[in-house]
């Protein structure tokens, strides 16, 4: 089981008893407004089961870590990464926080821990972060971690009837703070 710590947070491997929180977070329309229309429970369960499986960096699958407060053991959300391109040493990062964890710096803090760990554990040359153009909070998380806006991917995906522009951010390993 993987565990990473910051001053306020514990990041740990996903466990079977995280199901209710995983479901609640993935069905919340506010949390998912810039990502997707919330899926049916059966679809979310398949994703959850897949993410419980043993993980290797080379697999190309998402590593999903639970974010919890160290002091209270309160579940805050999820963070992680996947190897987007092994030959180019690119890893894409992501995070999803329950609304109770918004605005407290948890996403920024947890992302920094994941990046630092990945730099020590794998030969990552570049980290990639994507966020909807209108998702200002997510863009700030990336920017606070040193990511630079590299471009806008116009009408990159659709949520219901709305086309979403994605901001593509990059961070070279040697640029991290």
The total strand number stands at 8
What is the string of helix and strand elements?
A: EEHHEEEHEHEE
Summarize model confidence as the mean pLDDT.
95
Rg from alpha-carbon coordinates: 15 Å
Strand content: 35-45%
Low-confidence stretches: none
Fraction of helical residues: 25-40%
Domain N-acetyltransferase: 9-168
Organism: Shewanella eurypsychrophilus
Pfam family, one: Acetyltransf_3
Protein name: GNAT family N-acetyltransferase
Please write out the topology:
Elements: E1 3-5, E2 9-13, H1 19-27, H2 41-52, E3 63-69, E4 75-85, E5 90-97, H3 106-121, E6 126-132, H4 136-144, E7 148-159, E8 162-172
Helix pairs in contact: 1-2
Protein name: GNAT family N-acetyltransferase
Domain N-acetyltransferase: 9-168
Describe this structure as you would to a colleague.
Helices cover 26% and strands 36% of the residues. With 177 residues, the protein is of the alpha+beta class. The protein has one domain: Gcn5-related N-acetyltransferase (GNAT) (Aminopeptidase, 3-Layer(aba) Sandwich). The protein has an eight-stranded mixed β-sheet with strand order 1-2-3-4-5-6-8-7, sandwiched between helices. A hairpin with a 4-residue loop joins strand 4 (75-85) and strand 5. Helix 1 packs across helix 2. The protein is globular and about 35 Å long. The mean pLDDT is 95.
């Amino acid at each position: 089981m993987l565990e990473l710590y910051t001053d306020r947070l514990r990041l740990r491997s996903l466990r079977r008893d995280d199901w209710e929180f995983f479901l609640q977070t993935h069905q919340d329309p506010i949390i998912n407004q810039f990502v997707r229309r919330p899926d049916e429970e059966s679809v979310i369960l398949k994703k959850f089961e897949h993410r419980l499986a043993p993980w290797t960096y080379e697999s190309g699958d998402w590593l999903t870590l639970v974010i919890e407060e160290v002091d209270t053991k309160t579940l805050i959300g999820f963070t992680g990464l996947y190897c987007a391109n092994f030959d180019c040493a690119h890893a894409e990062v992501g995070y999803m926080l329950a609304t109770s964890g918004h605005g407290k710096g948890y996403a920024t803090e947890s992302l920094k821990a994941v990046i630092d760990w990945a730099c020590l554990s794998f030969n990552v040359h570049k980290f990639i972060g994507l966020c909807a153009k209108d998702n200002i909070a997510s863009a700030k998380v990336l920017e606070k971690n040193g990511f630079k806006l590299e471009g806008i991917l116009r009408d990159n995906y659709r949520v219901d009837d709305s086309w979403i522009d994605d901001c593509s951010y990059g961070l070279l390993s040697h640029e991290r703070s």
